[in-house]
Amino acid sequence: MRRAAVAIAAGAMAVSLAACGSAKESGDNADSTGSAKKGDDIKVGLLLPENATARYEKFDRPLIQKKVKELTNGKGEVVYANAKQDASTQNQQVDAMVSNKVDVLIVDAVDSKAIAGSVKKAKDAGIPVVAYDRLAEGPIDAYTSFDNVTVGKTQGEALLKALGDKAKDGQIVMMNGSSTDPNAAQFKQGAHSVLDGKVKVGREYDTKEWKPENANSNMEGAISALGKDKIVGVYSANDGMAGGIITALKAAGIADIPVTGQDAELAGVQRIVTGEQYMSVYKPYPQEADVAAEMAVALAQGKSLDSIAKDKVDSPTTKAVPSVLVPVVSLTKDNINDTVIKDGIYTVNEICAGKYKAACDKIGLN
User: Fold this and answer.
1) Are 262 and 283 a contacting pair, CB within 8 Å?
2) Is the predicted pLDDT of residue 34 greater than 90, yes or no?
3) 296, 322 in Cβ contact below 8 A?
4) Residue 273 and residue 357: Cα distance in Å, rounded?
5) CB-CB contact of 345 with 264 (8 Å)
6) Once rounded to an integer, what is the mean pLDDT over residues 332-359?
7) In the chain, pLDDT over 70 holds for what percent of residues?
């Protein structure tokens, strides 16, 4: 499923990259982990943060498992655990993986700071760690994600385009992600870089645990504080929260205002088809998952990452981490065919099932 995605901002990745640091600082080579070189018979620990967001079980897990199998002639094993949004549980899962003597870890951290001690435990045990999707702290060996600042810029630019002249007079609500997620801070940074000075932010929230129900509650508070006639749009950092936000808007009798999103979840794409949600950010998970698997297998086998990771990123604790940042695409009703359908993420039948068929027909999605 690995396909080329259309980058919306050429060269945007370079902004957040750092070229300084040494191999020793970053764990650039597998020899620094103390891991012995192995063949295809390897054990890859995969730790994902939660299962409420559809992407992790539908895309990330099976894609990584498939790629590991491909890279190891069917001999590599993926040992999987999901933390269900609990940082303490995830730390215990790392301990279990270390005890289980996995050869490498792929970790999507619930809390980027809280995971640092467990990353060090793995490192001390000679197990290299790939930070996946979120830049975990601690002595990680590699990192792959999307250009998160560009994600926020993409959302902000789309919202301004949808608002048009209304941006001058009305107010928006900003519904950011969890304060424990470093990605959320970068999304917010990117969005503010576009929105500040061009539209008034009436209310802004960091949404606990990214939960739709928390976004719904926050939105109800914003409507009460600002008045339903004053809100012209909503910046939502992801699709799950957009669902909760739109429920609150409907309950208040607010319609036809743009709401952003991210992740191109099926429900989000369907809301885009009906016009309830304006856009989402499509992040080509097959590319990200493939890179994570390639990094993990190379590290487990004692190979260099030079041919995989051409860039370096600094975390708060580790300099010059070998990294791959995958570009993203602004998804609206105009390019559903060219993105999630073309890349095999969903079929037309999945998107246009049942009550969505008429809306799909209206926009020519059939």
Assistant:
1) yes
2) no
3) no
4) 9
5) yes
6) 96
7) 90
What span, in angstroms and rounded, lies between the C-alpha atoms of 203 and 222?
A: 6
pTM for this predicted structure: 0.77
What is the number of alpha carbons within 13 Å of residue 317 lying toward its C-beta?
17
Q: Long-range pairs for 307-315 at CB < 8 Å and ≥24 separation?
A: 309/142, 309/144, 311/13, 311/17, 312/17, 312/18, 312/19, 312/20, 312/21, 312/26, 313/16, 313/17, 313/18, 313/135, 313/143, 314/18, 314/20, 314/21, 315/131, 315/135, 315/136, 315/137, 315/140, 315/143
* pLDDT for 6 beyond 50: no
**Per-residue tokens: 34:** 């103390």
| 349 vs 327: CA distance, rounded Å | 27
Per-residue model confidence as pLDDT tens digits over 235-286 = 999 999 999 999 999 999 999 999 999 999 999 999 999 999 999 999 998 9
List the structure tokens of 160.
């301004």
Compute CA 67 distance to the chain's CA centroid, rounded to the nearest angstrom: 19
